[in-house]
Amino acid sequence: MDLLPDDALLIIFDFYVDDDRDVDVWHTLLHVCQKWRYVVLSSPRRLNLRLLCTDIRPVREMLDIWPAIPIVIWKSRDPISLEEGADNIIAALEHPDRVCEIRLGNIPSSILESFAAVMQEPFLALTSLELLLDDKWDPPVLPESFLGGSVPRLLFLDLNCIPFSAVRNLLLSASDLVYLCLWDMPDSGYISPEEIATYLSTMTRLETLELGFYPYPYDSPPKRAPIHASQDSDPSPIIRTSLPALTHFWFQGDNEYLENLMAYLETPLLDDVTIINSFSPLDSLDSVELR
User: Could you give the CA distance from residue 127 to residue 104 in angstroms, rounded to a whole number?
Assistant: First the structure.
C-alpha cells in the first residue's frame, strides 16, 4: 500500500466510504498511518466527509478538533438523553453554514422550541430535515423565521406533528424537494387543499408526497366550509398544479378533503397511492392501497 500514489489511495478510500452508511467510517482510515490521514483530510468533498453530532457527544470539543467539514445532526437511540444533551445539539446548530442533515426523533415540544430559538438563520447547506415530535397533543410554537425561511438545497423533508403554519416559508424556498412528508399535522395547522397545491406548484422534482392530519377521537373531523362553495358564483376553471415526477402518494384524512386536493393536482406518473381514513373511530382506521 505504501507504493500506491495518493490518487490511487483516494479511489480506494472513495469506494470504502461510499460502501458504508456509517457517517463515522472515515475515522478508521485516519488511524492507519500519517499518509492515509493526509489523503483523507485533503479531500473532504471527494470522500463526502461529514461530522456526526449527537446529543451524547461532546460537540463543542469535536468542533474545535476537526476541520470545518459538513455537519450531520442525529439524535441517539437513548430515549431520555435529549433532555440532558440538548446543549450538544444546540452547539451544532450554531453552525448553520455547515449543517447538511438533521434527524431528530421523539422530541418534546419544549426542546424543539429551544432548538428553534437558535435556528433563525438560513441553513443553506441543509439537504435533509427530519423532526418527529413525541407528543401529538402539544404542538410546538415555531417562529415564521424558523431556519431563516430559506432551505434552497433541501431534498428530503419529514415532519411529524408540526403545524403547517410553522413551515410555510420553508416550502416556498424548497423547490428541489424529492421527498415531502407532513404527517399527523394538528388541527391548529389546518391548510386548505387549494393552498397546499399552491405550495407544491414549484416542486417539479417531487417523487414522494405524504400528507396526514392527526386522527380525531370522534366519528368525524371538525366541520369546515365546503372547499368549492364559491364555484357557482365564480365559473373560472381551477388552476391545476402539475407534479410531473410524483409516483408515491400517502394521505391520512377525510375523503372530501382528498377529493378536493386531487382536483387541484395533475400527477401523470402516479402509480402508488395509500389512503388512510383517519376520521373513522381510532380503533378502526380504514386503509386503502391503490397501485
Answer: 14
Residue 231's pLDDT band (cuts 50, 70, 90): very low
Q: What residue type is assigned to position 172 of the chain?
A: L
What is the reported pTM? Answer: 0.85
Q: What percent of the chain has pLDDT over 70?
A: 85
Apex CA 44: angle with CA 118 and CA 155, to 5°?
Answer: 55
Three-class SS state of 110: helix
- Per residue, what are the HEC states of 112-173? HHHHHCCCCCCCCCCCEEEEEECCCCCCCCCCCCHHHHCCCCCCEEEEECCCHHHCHHHHHH
Q: Is 254 helix (H, G, I), strand (E, B) or coil?
A: coil
When pLDDT is averaged across residues 207-223 and rounded to a whole number, the result is: 68
Which phi and psi angles does 17 have, rounded to 5°? -70, -40
What is the CA 48 to chain-centroid distance, rounded? Answer: 20
Q: Taking every pair of C-alpha atoms in the chain, what is the biggest distance, in angstroms?
A: 81
> How would you class 159 by CB atoms within 10 Å of its CB: exposed for 0-12, middle for 13-18, buried for 19 or more?
buried
